[in-house]
């Protein structure tokens, strides 16, 4: 099995919102802001093939579904659907994807499911041959969003996914589409039912897979958020997220599972380490993946 990091449309968002209660004097060292206080963010997907005999895409980024006014409001930098271009550069098309795994349905993670915006055209799903996977608890959140994060959802998307006939709601550690090749965990600190997908590593010890790769989604958007106290203003429950993140990182460190980041513009993959004071950090950072073996 090989792995590719697939770049989608990029964003610039307010640094204060992205770093919650961390002071600018701290976070600007990690992510220098522009003149509008915005920091650069990637929307990176992970492609794995063959995984359980299938071509699997983990998330789709923000895409190009916004009209020009909304694209400017949310800091989307490119007009074209960058994810489709990146797939082609890797030797794939969206029609080749058998499974799309969605950690959650906020637009910066699921907007790439949709065709680019065009005047007078209704939203249209891409990936016509794919099964779409989404966690059960988060699916209910997407159907009835809370006012706290209603603006983060695409109103038409749940109906389009249901109408496709290719939606699988995931309720446990494994899915029908991917079997035991991918194990799912869940987090509630950022949004209810955030689904964290781990590609199982090749080394089985004590009944647990070692050496895999986990898609961190918005539990850990990038390297700065590996620091346990650092959260986003967008998180629904920062204290819960901190507890979830600590347990998550302890588990991945113990089993040698590498972290895949969606929003870090400079790093796709890294190993987690912990210093003698108990603080987590990253090492062996990789900027991009191109047909990289899982065990490499």
State the major sheet: 7 strands, mixed
| Low-confidence spans | none
CATH architecture: 4-Layer Sandwich
The shape is globular
Helix content range: 10-25%
> How many DSSP E strands?
17
Please give the radius of gyration in angstroms: 18 Å
Please count the helical segments: 8
Under CATH, the homologous superfamily reads: Ribonuclease Z/Hydroxyacylglutathione hydrolase-like
CATH class: Alpha Beta
Assign the structural class, choosing from mainly alpha, mainly beta, alpha/beta, alpha+beta, or little secondary structure. alpha+beta
Overall average pLDDT: 97
Domains (count): 1
Percentage of β-strand residues: 25-35%
Sheet with most strands: strand arrangement: 8-7-6-5-4-1-17
How are helices and strands ordered from N to C?
EEHHEEEHHEHEHHEEEEEEHEEEE
CATH names the topology as: Metallo-beta-lactamase, Chain A
Tell me about this structure.
- The chain has 296 residues and is of the alpha+beta class.
- The radius of gyration is 18 Å and the shape is globular.
- It has one domain: Ribonuclease Z/Hydroxyacylglutathione hydrolase-like (Metallo-beta-lactamase, Chain A), CATH 3.60.15.10.
- Helices cover 21% and strands 27% of the residues.
- The model has no long low-confidence stretch (mean pLDDT 97).
- It has a 7-stranded mixed sheet with strand order 8-7-6-5-4-1-17.
